[in-house]
Amino acid sequence: MGPARGFTLIEAVVVIVLLGIVSGIVAVFLVRPVEGYRDLARRAALVEAAESALRRMQRDIRTALPNSVRVTNTASGYALELVPVLDAGRYNESGGTGDEQLDVTPGGGGGDDQFDIQHCFQNSATKTTAGIRLVINNQGTGLYNVYNDASLSVGAESIITPATGMTISITSATCPASGNDHITMTPGHDFRNTQSPNRRVFVVTTALSYLCDTSAGTLTRYYNYAIPATQPTAAATFTALNASSALVADRITACSVTTTTSDVRNRALATLALTLAEEGEPIRLVLQAQMDNTR
Predict the structure, then answer these.
(1) Cα separation of 185 and 189, whole Å?
(2) Same domain, 194 and 281
(3) pLDDT tens digits for 235-253?
């Protein structure tokens, strides 16, 4: 029988030390890539969240009623409001009063109750959507401001049909194959006796807003509320308006909207900026949205 074999204490200590050295070397090569991957994933998530929010805002701004985008800066961000367009068309107008023509000629008396648009509305939901309203020649200022006129009642001269007390129906026997859509308003409406430069009539329903609040770190979309005369700029106000809401982005540390209303081929531009941050690292994205202000 041979002599007993085993490890001495010194040998065990040496092995432990060597394992510690090897583990430290391996950790140096593994920790950095893992941390880098984690940082990259975090930045990618922030960029995706910011880009998604800005793209959503851009889409809504592009489909807004001409000259309806308005922005109010607040202590912790901003409120951006607009009136989304459900559909639009060119109405028939020649100064006459036939059933196919809309009389909005200055001095023409107004109060028309039916007219045709040229060909057909493009959105299949337009004819079946409840509570539609018609807008002509919104200039965003003075007498021709959809926000000022939105609360007027039946019988009042305005650029938008009233929210209650009026029935609007759209009929056509042949659309979209051929023919024109025919609009009937009961009772009739006087569109302020002003002609749209491009004879455009817009179909709208309600208003929509984005509220950026850096104190809460959120960007919230409020929608499906009555078009207000005064722009809402706080969450409590939207709640009072019974607005629906959806969180668009969180982790927001800064946000801004700058707009130009210079008449460059009847268009304006909004520059949207969002800064999101996580674990002390911010990312900032900027996106421009062109507003079609042709009336």
Answers:
(1) 7
(2) no
(3) 999 999 999 999 999 999 9
